[in-house]
Every structure is written in structure tokens, then in C-alpha cells.
Amino acid sequence: MKDFNLKDNAEFIALCDLLKTTDLCENGGHAKHVISQGEVVVNGVVETRKRYKVRSGETVTYHGQSIKVV
After folding, report:
1. How far apart are CA 40 and CA 17, in angstroms?
2. DSSP-assigned states of every residue in 10-66
3. pLDDT tens digits for 27-37?
4. What's the number of domains the chain is made of?
5. What's the rounded Cα separation, in Å, for the pair 68 and 70?
6. What are phi and psi of 69, to 5 degrees?
7. Cα separation of 4 and 21, whole Å?
8. CATH number for position 55
């Protein structure tokens, strides 16, 4: 599991941006597609909202890879 540090003073990062930024997806379009297809799990629950606000302490899993937001 990799850690992802939120930028200073940031409360969250959009789910599609997290997947793109951490290179789990090639680009934003690909990230939005896999989210809408139900392939992304946040804290053990399938998440289909592309702009879901991922906050510190949450874990995102896609294709067997997990990212913990800190």
C-alpha cells in the first residue's frame, strides 16, 4: 500500500484526480471511466462518484493496488 499526502491546507482530493495523480490510471478520462464502471473501492465500498472527496485516513483500491490518503 502506498501513501498519498494531501497538499498543504487541502481537505480532500477528488477520486478521479487521485487515480490520475498516483498513476493508477493513464489520464483523467480513464479514471472517470473505471470509477463509473464500479472498479474503484473506497474504504471497502464500491464508489461510482467521479468527484468523490477522498479525505485523510481513507483508502482507495483499484486493480489490486491500494492508496492510503494521509
Report:
1. 13
2. --EEEHHHHHHHTTSSSSHHHHHHHHHTT-EEETTEE---TT-EEETT-EEEETTEE
3. 999 999 999 99
4. 1
5. 6
6. -85, 125
7. 9
8. 3.10.290.10
Q: Write out the residue range of the structural domain in which residue 58 sits.
A: 2-69
Amino acid identity at 8:
D
β-partners of residue 66 are 61
And the C-alpha cell for 40? 474503484
The residue type found at 40 is V
Q: Are strands 2-4 and 65-69 parallel, antiparallel or unpaired?
A: parallel
Cell readout for 20 is 490520475
Q: Supply angle C-alpha 65, 31, 48, rounded to 5.
A: 90
Residue 57 grid cell:
485516513
What is the pTM for the complete model shown?
0.94
**Mean predicted lDDT score pLDDT of the chain:** 97
